[in-house]
Amino acid sequence: MVSKYEALFTPMNVGKITIKNRIVLCAMGGTSPFGLFDYKFEEKTHAYYVERAKANVGLIISGITPVKGMIGNEWLYEKEDIFMVPIKHMMDDIHAYGSKFFLQIGAGFGRVQGLIPGMDKMGIDLNKLMLAPSGNMPNVWDPTIKHREMTREEIQQIVDAYAKSADLCKKAGIDGVEIHAVHEGYLLDQFTVSSTNRRTDDYGGSLENRFRFVTDIIKAIKSACGQDYPVSVRYSVASKMRGFNQGALQVKIT
């Protein structure tokens, strides 16, 4: 081994868990253990993650799983049957190779919600889906569609759902959770950016207030799971935008 890479193969501690090395598989699209529109368990991700564990990855972080399903009013924490059977079996197989696993959980898309023709016929309540930190915010993909402001009650529902979901993760043997937070322009990111957060309550205004949604989630998870249960936060140090309603990358949805 080249000496300058030795540190990669030394253990590190997160809370009270020890990760055998510093090789981390970060979250990527399409690698959630759950389906995109529902919470059906994806068997293919089981095999995918076990292969990564066999390859000596120390920490595996899943692709994003929404805390609330896009169809209907399903919540992740209600899927105990999935967590305690297929997810638990997956964790046993991953742990057999000495790897650790964090489930990445997202709060939703907010104004970057993609609009698929016929969504209303799929049983999706668009009024509950088209949320934003502030009212009258244009949808990124179709600016003619405006998002409404999240109520404080809706914010608290998300915070509570994170705590309940993390507690279920812990019971299923998942080693920790990652909050998809200040990243990719999703809902929690929109709360932190002053141009999209024009609230006048304690979730808007100052930098501390704009980050309150995320910090409330962290505190709620720690309260439910204990101070030692690992919680990571996906955080981008900069947001790249061409303009207010135009991302850094050109994307066209047809």
Count of DSSP E strands? Answer: 13
The number of helical elements comes to 7
User: Which overall shape is indicated by the principal axes computed on the Cα atoms?
Assistant: globular
Mean of all residue-level pLDDT scores? 90
Q: Based on helices, strands and strand pairing, what is the structural class?
A: alpha/beta
Q: List the uncertain runs.
A: none
How far is the N terminus from the C terminus?
49 Å
Radius of gyration, rounded? 19 Å
Strand content: 15-25%
Order of helices and strands: EEEHEEHEHEEEHEHHHEEE
Q: Report the major sheet.
A: 6 strands, parallel
Helix content: 25-40%
General description of the model:
The chain has seven helices and 13 strands. The protein has 254 residues and is of the alpha/beta class. Helix 1 runs parallel beside helix 2 (80-95) and helix 4 packs parallel to helix 7 (212-225). The longest helix is centred in the middle third of the chain and has 20 residues, at 152-171. The protein is globular and about 55 Å long. The mean pLDDT is 90.
In short:
It contains 7 helices and 13 strands.
